[in-house]
Design a protein that fits this description.
8% strand; six-stranded mixed sheet; globular; disordered N terminus; 18 strands; alpha/beta
């Protein structure tokens, strides 16, 4: 087996190697030429210095050397860029082929393998790991080139300095493990920090999902505190990380000094006759500079190799199972799956309608999976003749237009299409959608209700005209009367599919009499099958099942049909609500390419995406006009602290001053050698000592300055991060509710994840590198100008050229980067969709179409990536040309003014010039990076807020009576929309119980939102106990009202925290509240009782229990005014009854407003407010309203209530 394990490892690399052989060979050739040329420059430099020191030499030699220097530099840059281009091409090709391969494998994955890894993991494999391979491909040549460069430079250095080179080398080698140690340490810190980050993001997304509750209960401060605590830990680790980084930067920047220092000192001390002259010193320095790069690269390449190898394993284990399946070995899917359908023998005749029924978990869906070939059959076989169409239990909707979802890649046949839509009851829905069947549907069908999704899924199957239809409970998600319609027009004996074979899994008993054949499953085996009448006569399990449920089901069916007018109206309405928002622009027919702007960050985001992308581009473009940008930098520096920023800048200046000083000292020292050429002087030793000492002292100074700068800047950066995050968080928690209705959570989460990360880690790094590069260039130019003052004349035109190239490149590059990220997300979202819809795709046999689509999206992305790479190469060639010109001119000027110059100063100016090319290149990179990133600071600042507490505080104990007055109150959701409440005037007395009823959309919920000022008034006012609520702070208002909301939202944390986040109450009070909420018994049984951990969204409690927890919250608050917003819609009748009794007893002395759909719940209230289209139509006691011909009595009739006495609850 071990041989089998090793084989695939080599397999992936081997295949990649074979495929891209030509590319590899060419890049090796270019790299070799480049590496050879790297060593020519130092040799030419040596000749030039010799030429300047030698008074007798001919002028033409000097000019020749200058021109040669220029040519080698140009050639070198051409080769290097060609090589990079090939490397990047290799990288993109490798990535593309890997992604395509993973996708292809995913389509053939068995369901057993699919269960092993989540969709997220597979998508990750595609995104991150394929990306790693791509980066790896760029470095792969360093594996042979680095050692080669190191060996060659050592040989040359040996020629210059003899064995004393080894001292310098020893220093270099010593530095490697130190760096390795630092890297490992900082990795640990990073890992720890990831945990903090995840924790913070988890709470954050919970807060955003439950923001309405937080606002209604005025709980924001508690959560703000929690998030800030986590953030504090995170920043502490971040500081540690930056310290480690400063140390490693310090070590790294010391390296060249220490190395040259060690070598020169040893060289001079070993032998009396060794004199350090300009030739030797500067040639060696430029060789040492050549050495730095490979020495730094090697460890990086090795570690990236190490990172890739586990990925390789993942990629392979993804590919393995498919192979094993092809070889015919059966994979059992865990023991209990093997027994799922123990032994099922079925024979279904063509054209018949078969219903499959059975309790939950009896294997209905498994039977269907087996038919589709999604499950391993251990024994026996499945034989299917004809094509399949499949409707899964949870509708799978693609991110495309509604029409595309139904056509699913088939040709459009208008007549059939219309017939299908009509039969599937989609016509009324199409009218509601902003763009009819051209409406773009978000990821996972986010802008459709459950029933609509299910009907689209059904329509897809019906349109697809197959021979066999497998329907996995398609009627569960739709309302009763819609279900009836679907059965009559599509599935039943008279439906569209009457001639086809239909296998229908169902829970609804009402349709069974019309079915040809019923299969009853019990625990994975067929217990009986036959027609409805036969089964009833058999008196088996099925008959018992019918007797126990049948009577209820009948009643329920009738009741639901009576009530559904309301219910479906409700659903349609919900859908409208969602689309009324400005989002609908995005859902209108959008040009096909707008789909590509979809992002995977969040499902919700999808709805707004096209518009939002539009806004995004505008936001970012606005940043690009020079001036705004500068204010951005200032804003960041202000967060760091202006004094701090100044200190950092000054320490960098000090650092480079020291650097220039060191080099000038060195050149003076080398000139000594000429001065005492002919006489041996006893002071030599002493002079040299001073020299060495000077060099030492200054280099220490330089490094210490640098160390100071990095330490200071890491402090400053953490400071800035803290401030920026706190501002963002407090702003988000204080923005008005309407903001959350129009902004997808995904976008806000993105602010907290991506943008904060940028502010934390990327911006400080970019700032640091920018300062470094900038100072480096300035100091180099200074040194050249000191040697040959004429050089200043040349700088000006070069500078202008450089600046234009820079501006041109930065704007292009930024746009390309953005296009890259925009075109990248469709690859992943398409992949994610594919994986979640695999059974459907396979059932319809559409694998090929999906493969092609994946390749198309991938190609679009590859185009932008490739353009970006090529633009980088374009830039590099132009910049390196500028660099080559600098070298050329410094050499030329040295030749011209040969007589007035010593060798030392020439060596200095040219060796610095040789160094400048790379730095120029870096400066551009870093500038564009900084510019792209600084936008994050701006995006974090763009939210506005409303105050929590104003100067006017309400009196203590307010509201004491609980009287509410509405005075001609008007309100709208957003400025551009219509009024929702059209002027409401009413008085609600102290401790009165008022029921609020009305059809959906009548403005009932808006009423509560107004009391809590979730919506601000458009006119009129609300007065509670004589105080106008618009004049006091939001928290003062909200802490004194209580609401039991429609959907019970719980947060992660202990149960106690969910009831009392501020720890205001004693444990006895909390237990008392739980007892009144009928939860005491349940909580006492929990092992941790009040400290019981609630999982995300309260998943580990049932919906009913969550509702009771919300009730307990209200009981704890004991405010004078209580609002119930359809609080009992989600619970069963028994719990409902409990809640009602509790409210009656516990809140007897409070004012209670109840918004209800079930009229039973409000029949005993003092008065009933009937709302219609934003106005109060009737407001009186229920008895009076029932007696006269009123809207209310009509509603009561619908609900089967004739007089108040009959309300049994």
């Amino acid at each position: 087996d071990s041989s089998h394990k090793d084989y695939p490892k080599k397999w992936l690399i081997k295949v990649l190697f074979k495929t891209f052989l030509q590319n590899l060979v060419m890049s090796v050739a270019f790299k070799l030429v480049h590496d050879a040329l790297v060593f020519v420059s130092p040799q030419l430099l040596k000749l030039l210095i010799a030429f300047v020191s030698d008074a007798e030499a001919f002028a033409w030699q000097g000019y020749l050397y200058s021109i040669l220097l220029f040519l080698t530099a140009v050639l070198q840059s051409l080769c290097l860029q060609q090589y990079f281009n090939l490397c990047f091409q290799l990288g993109t090709n490798v990535r593309a082929s890997l992604i395509a391969a993973i996708y292809k494998k995913a389509l053939t994955m068995s369901s057993a393998t699919r269960k092993e890894s989540t969709v997220g993991e597979t998508v990750n494999l595609m995104s991150a790991d394929a990306q790693r391979f791509m980066e790896m491909a760029n470095f792969v040549h360093q594996l042979w080139s680095s050692p080669l460069q190191i060996i060659v430079s050592i040989i040359f250095l040996w020629g210059e300095l003899g064995p004393s080179v080894l001292a310098g080398l020893a220093v270099m080698v010593l530095l490697i493990p130190i760096n390795g140690f630092l890297v490992n340490k900082s990795k640990d810190v990073q890992v720890r920090n990831m945990k903090n980050k995840d924790e913070r993001m988890k709470i954050m997304s919970e807060v955003l999902n439950g923001i309405k509750i937080l606002k209604l209960f005025a709980w924001e401060p508690s959560f703000e505190k929690r998030i800030n605590e986590i953030r504090a830990c995170e920043l502490k680790d971040l500081l540690k990380f930056s310290y480690l980084q400063s140390v490693s930067i310090f070590v790294f920047s010391c390296a060249p000094f220490l190395v040259s220092l060690a070598s020169f000192a040893v060289y001079i001390l070993v032998d009396e006759n060794n004199v350090l002259d300009a030739q030797k010193a500067f040639t060696s320095i430029s060789l040492f500079n050549v050495l730095r790069f490979p020495m730094a690269m090697l460890p990086l390449v090795l570690s990236s190799m190490v990172q890739v190898s586990p990925q390789e394993d993942c990629l392979i284990c993804l590919s393995e199972p498919c192979i094993s399946l092809l070889t015919g070995s059966a994979v059992r899917h865990a023991a209990h799956w093997a027994l799922l359908s123990c032994s099922v023998t079925l024979d279904i005749k063509p054209g018949s309608l078969v219903a499959v029924v059975g309790a939950v978990g009896s294997g209905k869906s498994s039977l269907i999976s087996a038919m589709l070939g999604e499950m391993e059959n251990i024994k026996g076989h499945i034989n299917i003749q004809g094509s399949l169409a499949y409707v899964p239990q949870q509708a799978w909707i693609q991110n495309a237009t509604l029409k595309d979802n139904i056509l699913f890649g088939s040709e459009l046949d208008e007549a059939r299409y219309q017939k299908v839509i009509k039969a599937c009851a989609l016509l009324p829905d199409l009218e509601l959608l902003p763009a009819g069947d051209q409406t773009e549907i978000g990821e996972k069908g986010i802008n459709l209700s459950g029933g609509q999704k299910q009907r689209v899924s059904l329509a897809r199957a019906v349109y697809n005209d197959a021979d066999i239809y497998i329907l996995d409970d398609p009627l569960s998600a739709v309302d009763a009367h819609v279900g009836k319609h679907l059965f009559e027009h599509v599935l039943g004996p008279k439906g569209l599919l009457q001639k086809k074979t239909r296998i229908l899994v169902t829970h609804s008993i009402s349709f069974l009499p019309q079915v040809d054949n019923i299969v009853v499953l019990v625990a994975g085996a067929v217990s009986e099958h036959g027609s409805y009448s036969t089964l009833l006569a058999n008196r088996g399990a099925f008959a018992q099942f019918l007797n126990s449920y049948g009577s209820q089901e009948e009643g329920a069916a009738e009741e639901t049909t009576a009530g559904t007018g309301n219910a479906t109206g409700y659903r349609g309405h919900v859908c409208l609500e969602v689309l009324k928002a400005p989002r609908c622009d995005s859902l209108c027919p959008s040009p096909p390419h707008s789909i590509s702007t979809q992002s995977t960050t969040s499902v919700k985001k999808a709805q707004e995406e096209p518009v939002k992308k539009g806004q995004k581009l505008i936001e970012k473009e606005a940043v690009e006009t020079g001036r705004v940008k500068f204010s951005m930098y200032l804003q960041y520096l202000r967060a760091v602290g202006l004094g701090f920023s100044f200190c950092i800048a000054m320490s960098y200046v000090g650092d480079y001053a020291a650097y220039v000083g060191t080099n000038l000292w060195l050149s003076a020292w080398t000139d000594d050698a000429e001065r005492y050429q002919n006489e041996t002087y006893p002071v030599q030793q002493r002079d040299l000592r001073i020299g060495v000492f000077g060099a030492l002292g200054v280099s220490q100074g330089e490094s210490l300055f640098l160390f100071l700068a990095t330490i200071l800047s890491s402090h400053g950066a953490v400071q800035a991060s803290r401030i920026v995050h706190e501002q963002l968080l407090s702003n988000i928690l204080r923005v008005p509710m309407s903001f959350f209705d129009t902004t997808p959570t995904g976008r806000i989460v993105n602010r907290f994840a991506k943008d904060i990360f940028t502010v934390d880690e990327t911006i400080p790094m970019s700032f640091r590198s920018w300062l470094n590069c900038f100072m480096g260039i300035i100091s180099t130019l200074l040194m050249i100008a000191l040697a040959t003052p004429f050089f200043l004349v040349v700088i000006v035109p070069l500078g202008i050229f450089y600046y234009f190239v820079l501006r041109f490149y930065i704007s292009t590059s930024r746009q390309l980067r953005r296009l890259d990220s925009v075109t990248r997300s469709p690859i992943y979202s398409h992949f994610g969709e594919t994986v979640s819809g695999l059974p459907v795709i396979r059932a319809y046999g559409h694998q090929q179409r999906f493969l092609e689509q994946n390749e198309k999206t991938l190609d679009i992305n590859q185009k932008t990536v490739h353009s970006w790479i090529v633009s980088n190469r374009w830039l590099a060639i132009r910049l390196e040309f500028v660099g080559s010109l600098v070298v050329f001119f410094s050499a030329l000027l040295a030749v011209i003014s040969k007589n007035s110059l010593g060798g030392g100063i020439v060596g200095l100016s040219i060796s610095s010039a040789l160094n400048v090319t790379q730095t120029l290149n870096w400066l551009v990179r870093v500038s564009s990076e900084l510019e792209t990133n600084i936008v994050a600071v701006e995006r974090v600042h763009e939210y506005t807020k409303a105050p929590w507490v104003t100067d006017k505080r309400p009196p203590h104990g307010w509201p004491s009576k609980g009287e509410i007055q509405f005075v001609d109150y008007k309100v709208r959701y957003r400025p551009e929309l219509e009024l929702v409440l059209l002027g409401i005037t009413c008085n609600i007395g102290s401790t009165e119980k008022v029921g609020v009823v009305g059809r959906t959309g009548a403005g009932k919920s808006s009423l509560t939102n107004c009391l809590f000022r979730v919506l601000e008034a458009a006119g009129g006012k609300i007065i509670i106990d004589g105080l106008d609520i618009a004049t006091i702070g939001l928290h003062d208002l909200r802490q004194n009202l209580t609401i039991i909301p429609q959907d019970p939202v719980l947060f992660t944390g202990t149960l106690r925290m969910n009831l009392d986040p501020f720890d205001q109450y004693t444990d006895e009070e909390v237990w008392k509240a739980l007892e009144l909420a009928h939860l005491k018994a349940y909580v006492q049984e929990l092992p941790e009782r009040l400290q019981h951990n609630v999982s995300e969204g309260g998943e580990n409690l049932s919906v009913g229990q969550r509702q009771l927890v919300c009730l307990a919250r209200a009981l704890l608050r004991k405010a004078k005014i209580l609002i119930l917003d359809e609080a009992t819609a989600a619970v069963d009748l028994e719990t409902d009854h409990l809640i009602q009794t509790t409210i009656r007893s516990a809140f007897a002395d409070c004012t209670v407003l109840t918004i209800a759909h079930r009229l039973h719940t409000i029949m005993d209230s003092n008065r009933v407010m009937v709302m219609h289209a934003g106005k109060i139509v009737e407001f009186d006691s229920p008895e009076k309203l029932l007696q006269k011909q009123s809207v209310f009595s009509a509603m009561a009739k619908d609900a089967g209530i004739t007089n108040t006495e009959t309300t049994t609850l």
